[in-house]
């Protein structure tokens, strides 16, 4: 499969920024904090969002509009992954959360489009499901394709068909465990020679097995028709290791034969990779960054540098894992209702399996200045006018987006 790997993006980004010298962020901006306002559960998310007007970038690039949506919340944390697939024959498929009716988004569901090797289909006029869904994830299975999205109450909606790009979708429900049926925010990847092994991660919507929330693993060996592994909390991800996880803080690597891996990254848990050489039968936990406040449960903290939640992982041709992730800063002030993050702290960092993990509780291990000196910072704010400093048009972030 000719699929653009994360490593290619990392290399391209590195070449792009070589002409721009790194400029340190002024101390006063580095220390400006904002409250964490991220809302993950839909019960506390505004269901009516203002339509986002189209903004022309002004760049002459070759593009095709696959479809449309006014529903802006495509992911809660990490960038939407496993929503686009390019097959070896040049055909492609794409999915996204589609919502046009901005008054409550009753029409919300999976937007789907397919490229047959010559042309993309017309933009879809409706979702592929018969019920309201969101957060779709896509994977090939055999000669067909699979889309899994979450439903508000029943669990996950599994849409499947045996011929990619054409034909009706069959629809089934994959429910979570007793007491946490409404699992949500799925992400999946298929593996094996025929891509009939489906590997899925989903989150509980409520506390489960001592975790708030729990990350569960599911597996199908028949292309998503049945599931031989369900509701599994993988070793190293139990309540003995963490207090819980947040939605969308995980991302799959494209599989390499029978070897699969996903990364977990957030500002209040470790950043680590779970890797399996045998399609999910056994797992190895690989630490990337060890959180300085293990088992954090809303206690006050000092200020520390951390992943911002946007992290991706990819195998190279030799099977080695490469990771790229965003960097930020966080703290929990005593008596505060929620943690804080630092809007002006930024950067994209790099790690691979040959490098040591960041451990020992170092609060400044992921400081962009430190990472740059170590050669592990591959992206940063640009000094556009090349005057040797970062110039901002105002510093007010009263109406800043819910970044975390």
What does this protein look like?
This protein has 404 residues and is mainly beta. 6% of the residues lie in helices and 31% in strands. It has three helices and 21 strands. It has helices spanning 6-17, 27-30, 368-374, and strands spanning 34-35, 84-86, 92-98, 109-115, 133-141, 144-151, 156-161, 170-174, 184-191, 197-203, 215-220, 229-232, 250-252, 260-264, 271-276, 284-289, 304-315, 321-331, 340-341, 348-352, 377-379. The strands form five sheets. Strands 1, 17, 18, 19, 20 and 21 form a six-stranded antiparallel sheet that branches. A four-stranded antiparallel sheet has the order 5-6-7-8, with no helix packed on it. A four-stranded antiparallel sheet has the order 9-10-11-12, with no helix packed on it. The protein is globular, with a radius of gyration of 21 Å. The two termini are 34 Å apart. The relative contact order is 0.14.
Features:
4-stranded antiparallel β-sheet; 6-stranded antiparallel β-sheet; single chain; mainly beta; 404 residues
Quick structural overview:
The protein has 404 residues and is mainly beta.
- Report the β-strand fraction as a percent range: 25-35%
- With helices defined by DSSP (H or I, 4 residues minimum), what is the helix count? 3
Tally the beta strands: 21
Structural class of the helices, strands and pairings?
Answer: mainly beta
Indicate the mean pLDDT: 89
What is the end-to-end distance?
A: 34 Å
Main beta-sheet annotation: 6 strands, antiparallel
Radius of gyration: 21 Å
Unreliable segments of 5+ consecutive residues:
1-18, 43-55
Q: How would you describe the oligomerization state of the chains in this entry?
A: single chain
In sequence order, what are the helices and strands, one letter per element? HHEEEEEEEEEEEEEEEEEEEEHE
Helical residue percent band: under 10%
Question: What spatial form do the alpha-carbon principal axes imply?
Answer: globular
């Amino acid at each position: 499969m000719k699929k653009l790997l994360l490593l290619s993006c990392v290399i391209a980004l590195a070449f792009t920024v070589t002409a721009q010298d790194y400029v340190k962020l002024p101390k006063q901006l580095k220390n400006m904090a904002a409250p964490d306002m991220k809302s993950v559960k839909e019960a506390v998310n505004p269901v009516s969002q203002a339509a986002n007007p189209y903004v022309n970038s002004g760049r002459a690039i070759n593009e095709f509009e696959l479809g449309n949506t006014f529903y802006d919340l495509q992911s809660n944390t990490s960038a939407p992954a496993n929503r686009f697939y390019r097959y070896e024959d040049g055909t492609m498929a794409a999915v996204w959360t589609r919502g046009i009716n901005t008054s409550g988004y009753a029409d919300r569901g999976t937007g789907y489009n397919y490229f047959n090797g010559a042309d993309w289909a017309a933009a879809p006029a409706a979702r592929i499901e018969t019920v309201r869904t969101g957060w779709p994830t896509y994977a090939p299975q055999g000669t067909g394709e699979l889309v899994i999205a979450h439903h508000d109450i029943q669990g996950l909606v599994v849409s499947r068909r045996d011929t990619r790009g054409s034909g009706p979708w069959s629809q089934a429900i994959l429910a979570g465990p007793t007491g946490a049926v409404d699992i949500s925010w799925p992400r999946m990847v298929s593996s094996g020679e025929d891509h009939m092994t489906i590997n899925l991660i989903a989150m509980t919507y409520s506390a489960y097995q001592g975790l708030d929330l729990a990350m569960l693993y599911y597996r199908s060996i028949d292309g998503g028709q049945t599931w031989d592994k369900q509701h599994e909390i993988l070793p190293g991800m139990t309540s003995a290791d963490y207090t819980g996880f947040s939605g969308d803080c995980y991302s799959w690597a494209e599989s390499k034969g029978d070897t699969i891996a996903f990364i977990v990254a957030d500002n209040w848990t470790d950043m680590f990779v779970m890797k399996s050489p045998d399609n999910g039968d056994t797992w190895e936990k690989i630490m990337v960054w060890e959180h300085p406040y293990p088992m954090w449960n809303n206690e006050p903290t000092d200020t520390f540098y951390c992943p911002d939640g946007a992290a991706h992982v990819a195998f190279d041709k030799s099977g080695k894992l490469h990771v790229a992730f965003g960097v930020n800063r966080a703290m929990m002030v005593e008596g505060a209702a929620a943690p804080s993050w630092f809007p002006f702290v930024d950067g994209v960092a790099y790690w691979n399996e040959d490098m040591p993990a960041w451990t020992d509780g170092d609060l400044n291990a992921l400081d962009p200045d430190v990472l740059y000196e170590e050669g592990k910072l591959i992206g940063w704010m640009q000094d556009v006018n090349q005057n040797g400093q970062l110039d901002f048009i105002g510093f007010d972030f009263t109406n800043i987006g819910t970044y975390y």
